[in-house]
Every structure is written in structure tokens, then in C-alpha cells.
Amino acid sequence: MTFVDLPSPNHAPRPDGQGVDILVLHYTELPLRESLDILRDGMRELRVSSHYVLDLDGTVYRLVPEERTAWHAGKSWWRGREGLNATSIGIEIVNLHGDRHDYPPVQIDALTELCRGILARHPAIEPRNVVGHSDIAPQRKIDPGRRFPWKTLAERGIGLWPRAGVRPLDGDFHKALQRYGYAPPLAVPPKEIVKAFQRHYRPAQVDGMIDPETRSQLAGLLDPLGRAA
Length: 229
What we know:
Organism: Reyranella aquatilis
Structural class: alpha/beta
Pfam family, one: Amidase_2
InterPro entries: Amidase/PGRP_sf, Amidase_domain, NAMLAA_amidase_2, PGBD-like_sf, PGBDSf
Family: Belongs to the N-acetylmuramoyl-L-alanine amidase 2 family.
Strand content: 5-15%
Order of helices and strands: EEEHEEEEEEHEHHHHH
Keywords: Cell wall biogenesis/degradation, Hydrolase
């Protein structure tokens, strides 16, 4: 894996006492050069950045040191916390639209190596805290998209994937989603939260319907006591 240092001016200190416990994966939706220009532009009215940008060929561009806050998550929510930039690391993955374009194997291999290094340096990032932008910002974001290989990453020790053959979850589905980490349905329209969950764990059908398969997928992520696996 090749690293290229291209510092961005768009960062800030992490708040005192705040460690890193979330890893957020994005897609750029723009080609590499345009993405780098935006993420390194300190003159924009709304300045944005990420810690890393991962190109199609597996090259990793380092923009912000991991000990600093990058501005990639925006208005976000996960496991009862809002505004997740302060406690997260963000990776922008070059892909023009993750619902239409596959991620090449060489890129995913490099992402695997990059994520493993991040997880080793920040052991507070537990598996369910490896999330997509759409997980933490339902309705507002859809990246990294339905073609992103979450299952492959989970098989490589990065994130979670539902256990197969689990009986559909009974009871209030949205309360169970909150136990796992998603925003409460009062903060975001309930259907959009279900879509975000499906986009990550049931990408073949993202319709926001709480059907038996969707209930089974969430049950496969929770232990019998309803706590996150």
C-alpha cells in the first residue's frame, strides 16, 4: 500500500479527553483530483476534510493526522451521541456512485490494510462502530452505497455482519435499531433509518419496509439479551 502525504488545512484539535471510537467510511462521488481539491481547500465557506482518501488503485492520501479532528461527518448521530467528528476517523473512498459502480478488489485490499492499522491504533473502535456515512446520517447521506462490500470487510475482521439463520426479531424494531446504534425515529423519519440499515446489511432491497428478512438481519447483529453483539 502506497501512502502520499497531501496535508489539508481543514482540521482542529480533538476535545480534551475525547478518544477515537468510530470509523466512518464514505465515497467521494467525484474523481480523485476534484475530491482532493475540495478536501484541501481552506478558503471554502463550508470547509470539509477527511483523514484519508483512498484512490481506485489503492493509493492512500493522508490529509489530516489521526490525532486531529477532520470535518467529514457533519450532522451525525450514533449510539446516543451527535456531531461525531470529534471522536471519529473518516476515510473517503474514490467511487463516483456506490449504488452503480463496484469497488475494485485492489482498492478493497488497500482499505482492509488501512482499516486494520487504524483499528490497531484505536482499540476503542469496536466492530459495530465501523459505519458508513449513511448509518450516522440517514436521510441526508447514502454513501458508501449499496455496492460497498461490507460483508467482505467483516469477514476480514473489520465491522460486523449479521449471523445467518436467526429468527426474525420480535417487538419494537426501532428501539432495537437504537440499541444497535441508529438514531431515534424522532430525529430522522423512521423509514429513512430502516433504509440506512438495509443499505448496509440488506443492500439487495432498500425499501424502508420492516419485513421478516430485515428483522432477521437485525436479530443476527444482536445477542439474545438485545445488546449489540
